[in-house]
From TrEMBL:
<comment type="pathway">
    <text>Lipid metabolism; butanoate metabolism.</text>
</comment>
<keyword id="KW-0560">Oxidoreductase</keyword>
<feature type="domain" description="3-hydroxyacyl-CoA dehydrogenase NAD binding">
    <location>
        <begin position="294"/>
        <end position="470"/>
    </location>
</feature>
<dbReference type="InterPro" id="IPR013328">
    <property type="entry name" value="6PGD_dom2"/>
</dbReference>
<protein>
    <submittedName>
        <fullName>3-hydroxybutyryl-CoA dehydrogenase</fullName>
        <ecNumber>1.1.1.157</ecNumber>
    </submittedName>
</protein>
<dbReference type="Pfam" id="PF02737">
    <property type="entry name" value="3HCDH_N"/>
</dbReference>
<dbReference type="GO" id="GO:0006635">
    <property type="term" value="P:fatty acid beta-oxidation"/>
</dbReference>
<dbReference type="InterPro" id="IPR006108">
    <property type="entry name" value="3HC_DH_C"/>
</dbReference>
<comment type="similarity">
    <text>Belongs to the 3-hydroxyacyl-CoA dehydrogenase family.</text>
</comment>
<dbReference type="InterPro" id="IPR008927">
    <property type="entry name" value="6-PGluconate_DH-like_C_sf"/>
</dbReference>
<feature type="domain" description="3-hydroxyacyl-CoA dehydrogenase C-terminal">
    <location>
        <begin position="172"/>
        <end position="268"/>
    </location>
</feature>
<dbReference type="Pfam" id="PF00725">
    <property type="entry name" value="3HCDH"/>
</dbReference>
<dbReference type="GO" id="GO:0070403">
    <property type="term" value="F:NAD+ binding"/>
</dbReference>
<dbReference type="InterPro" id="IPR006176">
    <property type="entry name" value="3-OHacyl-CoA_DH_NAD-bd"/>
</dbReference>
<dbReference type="InterPro" id="IPR036291">
    <property type="entry name" value="NAD(P)-bd_dom_sf"/>
</dbReference>
<feature type="domain" description="3-hydroxyacyl-CoA dehydrogenase C-terminal">
    <location>
        <begin position="474"/>
        <end position="566"/>
    </location>
</feature>
<feature type="domain" description="3-hydroxyacyl-CoA dehydrogenase NAD binding">
    <location>
        <begin position="8"/>
        <end position="169"/>
    </location>
</feature>
Amino acid sequence: MAQRFPTVAVFGLGTTGRHLVDALVRGSRRVIAVERDEPALRRGRAGVAAPESAVEFTTDPAAAARADLVVEAVPERLETKRGLLARAHADCPPETVFATTTTGLPVTEIAVGSGRTDRTVGLHLFPLGPDREQSAVEVVGTPLTADAVLADVRELVRDLGRIPVRVADRPGFVGGALTMAYLNNAVAMYERRYASRDSIDTAMTLGCGLPMGPLAQLDAMGLDTARDSLEALYERTGDPRYAPAPTLAHMVTAGLLGVKAGRGFYEYGVGGAGRGGETDGLGEPVPARAVRRIGVVGSGTMAVGIAEVCARAGYPTVLVARSEMRAKEATAAVERSLERGVRRGKLAPELLTEAMGRLTAGRELQALGACDLVVEAVAEDIDVKRAVFADLDRVCAPGAVLATSTSSLPVIECAMATRRPEDVIGMHFFNPAPVMRLVEVVHTVLTSKEALGTAHAVAAALGKRAVDCPDRAGFIVNALLFPYLNSAVAMLEEGWTTADDIDTVMAAGQGYPMGPLRLLDVIGLDVSLAIQRTLHGTFRDPALTPARHLRRLVEAGHLGRKGGRGLHLHER
């Protein structure tokens, strides 16, 4: 079969253009790389990894007349893109196909402006995603695009070792619509001083397994590119989620454009390595109380995981469950987990014996009286947690730090159930606790510096990375993650595309560990709905209203993987 599009012209050698040139050369295409002037051409050429012999670099736009496919990868401005393709229309034969790499602009309008309505497609790449085989590319058709053209472009994407995902010409498509709102939300969080730059990025990489934090991702993308994409999306939709955070405009005006300028949210040295400035911890020495013994209240998955982590780290650990049977089951669960570690070669047999020797379990809260830190990990119900904290206040020694592992409820509610709110703090471990390295340390307006310092010191001793944040619904991770997940459900409900395609775009395109809909099924749709309701109830933002499809699935008892059916079907 003849090779589709043997010669491709790429206009613009920014991040996306360079990524595309390299992919095309690896796919055995002849490439004509076009820039607006010699300085821009030199900068672009320096960022292309492909051998120079495989690429024709030029400032002459008429060179595109020799191409079978013309791809524009210029800045996100409608008139710029339309004008470039209109000029190419005059230079190129009628059979040449055009593609736009826009994130936020309408492909249909670009196609009309180009003069080739039936031969223009969108080609939405993910240059910051994994540069590997089987990454995703969104292929965007319009109501006017010829089916044969779409088929040829999808085949080209396959030839390049990528996964073509056909999507309709909606604002942002799938990847841009979900990603840009999430990134903008992260800037807003930083702008409001809710969390530091490093805390935000560390939370999302360690808590969600993302390939890079949102602020680092914006730096790599280019803050001007991000702002222009958000402006285009906001203009098309009027959706406040896309109104660029003022900090973006301020930084762009100041020339702080990210990696390409040497400074954005981070400073960059030779090779683009980020450095400088902030910390994801406390930033200054804070006194901490001595912790010799740790207590855990609960017997579920999280309580068992926290108890295992503490015992493995060398702390005598006391687990208190609601019955002797549940205490024995929790102990057995810890032992099974440690045995798996031994079988996999991750834990020496003698360390299993030592860890189990440090763990005791029972049903009497009085056993926690000698503990210096007690972590509550019971059901995510504020009344249940308040009752536990009232009991802990009664049995724990003065000066003991009392922590809740809640992922979404107000820590201050737990604190006010005691007579020592200054000693109460949040320590949000992530599941599975023995594996996940992140702990969100959550302080209320009453938390003492000593309690805060103690939580950070213990987290470090457990081998965890602690990020500090105030007591606000969602803390860092859930406040950024769940609006993104909720938007993905709304996208499915509105018929943008299939659940599998949404997940493919975000997993194989952006490089996320799994797509948003599959992640919701893993978390549990009932748990996810409860967190989304908490966010909506706290902030009263209409954009945080739980997606109707999510509510209906929970009402029908389709709770995700644990029930065999949710947004996907699961084998049981």
